[in-house]
Amino acid sequence: MTRSSTTINASGPPDLKAYLDGADQIVDALPWKLGHTEAQHKRARGRASALAHQIAALLASGWTIDELRNALADASNGCRAPNAAAQEKLWRTTLKRANRARKSASDPDPRIGICHRVA
After folding, report:
1. How many C-beta atoms lie closer than 10 Å to residue 41's C-beta?
2. Per-residue pLDDT tens for 80-117?
3. Is the backbone of residue 85 left (phi > 0), alpha (psi -120 to 50) or beta?
């Protein structure tokens, strides 16, 4: 069986390119600590890019820019982190926590309301 080039792979990862502009807006607004040297700046830019891709994946899965901004606002102590690595870790942890909370709010407890089907 041959597939045409227009066939969409439903099991593949989403194309994040369409969401990177929105993700960049969110990441650019964060108070990054860039450091003093060119090497520190380069590492901070890499961390910002990685965080933007995580945010783009959340946007692709249905999050809105405002939801993500609100989730990151909960990590207001990001500016007190000692460096960009600590900031990135804090913001990633905050996003993971918000994602889990969002999923648990939308997925009811599987033990409640189960109907058993008798064959």
Report:
1. 14
2. 889 999 999 999 999 999 999 988 887 665 555 555 55
3. alpha
